[in-house]
Amino acid sequence: MVHVTESVFATGAVNPFTKQTEPIRRFTLSNGDGMSVQVITLGATITSIKTPDARGQLDDVTLGFDDLAGYQSEKNPYFGATIGRVCNRVANGRFRLDGEVVEVSKNRDNKFQLHGGFVGFDKAHWDVVALLKDGVKLSHTNPDGHEGYPGKVTATVSFTLSEDNCLHVRMMAESDKPTPVNLTNHSYFNLAGHKAGANGLYEHSIEINAYGITETDKDSIPTGKITLVDGTAFDLRVPSNLGERLKQLQPARGYDDNFCVEFDPPQPFAKVARATHPPSGRWLEVVSNQPGVQFYTANFMPDVERGEAAIRGKSGAAYAKHGAFCLETQKFPDSVNHSNFPSTTLRPGDHYNHEVIYKFGVSQ
Length: 364
What we know:
The chain is mainly β. The chain is built from 3 helices and 29 strands. The strands form 8 sheets. Strands 11-12-13-14-29-23-22-17-20 form a 9-stranded antiparallel beta sheet. Strands 1-2-3-4-5 form a 5-stranded antiparallel beta sheet, with no helix packed on it. It has a 5-stranded antiparallel beta sheet with strand order 19-18-21-24-27, with no helix packed on it. The two termini are 24 Å apart. The relative contact order is 0.17.
């Protein structure tokens, strides 16, 4: 039996769209196995995932903050948030749509757009559409012209939990004009526990079911070329120790790459990735209907070895470089500028439908 309860996460939050002061609501989904998930209406954000290890000990395995100030801080690297209207990068903040040039905001060094711009879906106050028997459904209406994008987009995200420890996230959207839509969830995971840091991360094993990666330039902007992973440090089709793989990548800071997922037609879903943490026994499998996944090893969180101050997270945790990993299911980055990539254009009458399942378990 899955239980859903509601509480107030914070009061006095100013909605960036309406300028109204509103409370931020929190929903806790819990099942009989001891697993629980917390979601807040700010950014349709997953703030906590607690799951047992092989000995039955619960720990929170996703990074986040205890309070509103943390989530509103410039130091927040999108912990757990729903990202949109277009996740990842848009080169030069510009693209052509049906022959017309569209200019969108450039929130990264005035060079390109990242994760929807200055006020993306992660900063919206999402409305509660429905309390479900096993979760919650939220919605956000993004106005025509916001961050430069054409069309009014109505998006919904539902979060549901199953008795067998599956967190199912379903992102849907419609638009009244042609516009790109590419949503993702930006949870940061550490199966050793959210406080375990880089040492915990290096103990993980990672497997990604991908035939290629989208080649990028120094700003992580795709060139348009897809590089096959065979014989490279990006071939993660066989489970590999993540610490060793990160050493192989040096001098690169770590993984921050879109992997092209291998599907088995006509199946609409693919096994995207599996991460395991042998010391605790915890594992995470990711299944999705999206063609890509951004595998990111928190390379740009503060580098404390260089004297940078750690991000203060939940329960006083110190979050720093390589303290977590992300598996952001998505269409390919900068698809708006590459006709050979899966299209992100959403047209009136069409339905954007992105499903991702995070299944947690333990190896005995």
